């Protein structure tokens, strides 16, 4: 089915579905990135060799997933990123890879404060999630309307 790009303000219901799709994709990549990190991160007994093993692999994984810093980074990076995605997608000319590269650059802006953290994963996981979303999962164009059938 061919699609045409029109003004997003003509059909707000369709715009809402497209925005929900982009938001869902963003949240999916964010959760997937932290899940991969939690499953592959070094365990507490591996970080300090003299400590006895006190928690199982799955307890350590749950600790990494429910750590307060992850929630804080999720809010501090995720909310501005969603605003950038939605505004950039609605108000910018939406054409292929040029759009994706510019969006990837813009999505790195909310992660600048992570450079000052002492925990390396807090920098790499969000940055990689932002780049993967912008280059692979972002629906381009953000708002699509089905073309009218010619008589």
Strand order of the largest sheet: 1-2
**What's the tally of helices?**
6
Would you identify the regions where 5 or more consecutive residues have pLDDT less than 50? none
Largest sheet, strands/sense/barrel: 2 strands, antiparallel
Tell me how many strands there are: 2
Order of helices and strands: EHHHHHHE
Which structural class fits the helix and strand makeup? mainly alpha
Overall shape: elongated
* Percent of residues in beta strands: under 5%
**Residue-averaged pLDDT, rounded?**
76
State the separation between the terminal residues, measured CA to CA. Answer: 16 Å
What percent of residues adopt helix (DSSP H or I)?
55-70%
Q: Supply Rg.
A: 19 Å
What this model shows, in words?
Strands 1-2 form a two-stranded antiparallel sheet. The longest helix is centred in the N-terminal third of the chain and has 29 residues, at 12-40. By secondary structure, it is mainly α. Helices cover 63% and strands 3% of the residues. The two termini are 16 Å apart. The model has no long low-confidence stretch (mean pLDDT 76). The protein has helices spanning 12-40, 44-47, 57-65, 68-91, 96-107, 121-137, and strands at residues 3-4, 145-146.
């Amino acid at each position: 089915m061919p699609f045409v790009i029109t003004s997003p303000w003509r059909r707000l219901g369709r715009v809402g579905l497209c925005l929900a799709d982009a938001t869902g994709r963003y949240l999916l990549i964010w959760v997937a990135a932290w899940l991969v990190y939690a499953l592959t991160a070094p365990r507490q007994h591996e970080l300090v060799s003299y400590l006895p093993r006190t928690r199982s692999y799955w307890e350590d994984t749950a600790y990494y997933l429910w750590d307060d810093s992850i929630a804080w980074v999720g809010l501090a990076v995720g909310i501005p990123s969603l605003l950038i995605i939605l505004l950039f997608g609605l108000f910018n000319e939406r054409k292929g890879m040029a759009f994706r590269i510019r969006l990837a650059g813009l999505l790195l802006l909310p992660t600048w404060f992570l450079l000052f953290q002492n925990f390396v994963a807090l920098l790499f996981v969000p940055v990689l999630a932002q780049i993967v979303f912008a280059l692979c999962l972002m629906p381009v164009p953000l708002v699509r309307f089905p073309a009218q059938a010619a008589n």
